[in-house]
Design goal:
Chains A, B: Pathway: Cofactor biosynthesis; coenzyme F420 biosynthesis. Chains A, B: It is an enzyme of class 2 (transferase). The structure is a homodimer of 215-residue chains. Chain A contains six helices and nine strands. With 215 residues, chain A is α/β, with parallel strands linked by helices. Chain A folds into two domains: 165 residues, Spore Coat Polysaccharide Biosynthesis Protein SpsA, Chain A (Alpha-Beta Complex), CATH 3.90.550; 39 residues, no CATH class. In chain A, helix 1 packs antiparallel against helix 6. The radius of gyration of chain A is 17 Å and the shape is globular. Chains A and B meet through helix 5 of A and helix 5 of B.
């Protein structure tokens, strides 16, 4: 099993700009990438590639294959899928709650495809046994896209049900899940900058410099 | 195993008032209650109670025991827990993605307590083998509260990891998860009133009467 993590650092996570400045967002996404890498490696995946538009954005000490591709996300991943002939797991770089046990669970499923939904109709992880038979279509309701693509290709699909694997970090409110349930590098980074504000409803984050998180 | 569903219909889900009027919200929560009831019953739980401030708010055809209690959520549930001497599953009434397989999974865990986190630090389900040894503390970061309470009581705890069981419906954005992943009465109700609007980020809901859903 091979893994690929699509990763973009420059001006990443713009929807977090109400709570993290540009430099902080770029530091944060780098730590999330390391968390995802550590989880995949702890789950026993040796060959981990990072698909990026800029080689320089990858920390030199990260034991990954770097695939540089200027093309858009879908085109770059589909070119990657066409270039390999072993089972592959595509994991997004913003899954700091993902744990090794979920990765092992996902890789052991017998179906042709395993899809882990993301928040708001997205896709956090796809595991494909025969990459050449599949193509990705991220953005919009990508979960429904990928489910339909697998069915059109006559591939069996398992939708993997995990709160941790389905928690991607895109918006300020997502940082609460990291503070409550996280334990890695990205969690520590956010813990140093935010605290939690409890009320009757959902917990909100409170920036330590009193920049109240507005969603 | 007994189940109890805390349920309040009057002016429910005020945070959905930007997309559903009062009458719609009350219809919607009633359908979500039926979805949760159907799931618990399909999972083999015979004795299902509804803990409510108003008996009249429960549909007469729902095969449940009705426990009327004017007190606040925590006090009412703690009184309930003190009154029963069998394992109990407390399920919130706004879990329309919950499936029977998750309920069976949760009831079969061997730990003293099983906690299913909700979004934003909440608690969606607690299963307690010995109710008299436990007490609840909902609101705020209730997941961390309940985890600490179990530990203080020397009770073993399992945190159950499920995207479906952890998806509670409180805010407009949550309705997207229902449209993408749901299949019950509440899903149909929302499907009749909203469509999905795709962009590069997460899918948003679009009211069919063009009341754009604002979070």
């Amino acid at each position: 099993m091979r893994a690929v993590i699509p990763y973009k650092k420059e001006n990443a996570k713009s929807r977090l700009s109400s709570v993290l400045d540009l430099h902080e967002r770029e530091e944060f996404v780098e730590l999330m990438l390391k968390d995802v890498f550590n989880t995949l490696r702890s789950a026993g995946i040796e060959n981990i590639d990072v698909l990026t538009t800029s080689r320089a954005s990858i920390a030199p000490d990260l034991d990954v294959g770097i695939i540089e591709n200027e093309k858009g996300l879908n085109e770059a991943i589909n070119q990657y899928l066409a270039s390999i002939d072993e089972p592959v797991l595509i994991a997004m770089a913003d899954l700091p709650l993902l744990a090794p046990c979920q990765v092992m669970d996902i890789t052991e499923k017998q179906t042709d495809v395993v899809i882990v939904p993301g928040k708001g109709g997205g896709t956090n992880i796809i595991r494909i046994m025969q990459p050449s038979r599949f193509h990705v279509k991220y953005y919009g309701s990508s979960f429904l896209n990928h489910y339909a693509i697998a069915q059109e290709c006559g591939m069996s699909v398992h939708v993997y049900d995990s709160f941790r694997a389905s928690t991607d970090i895109d918006e300020p409110q997502d940082l609460v899940e990291l503070l409550v349930h996280g334990s890695g590098l990205a969690k520590e980074y956010i813990k140093e900058r935010f605290s939690m504000r409890s009320g009757k409803g959902r917990v909100a984050i409170l920036s330590d410099t009193c920049r109240i998180a507005s969603e």
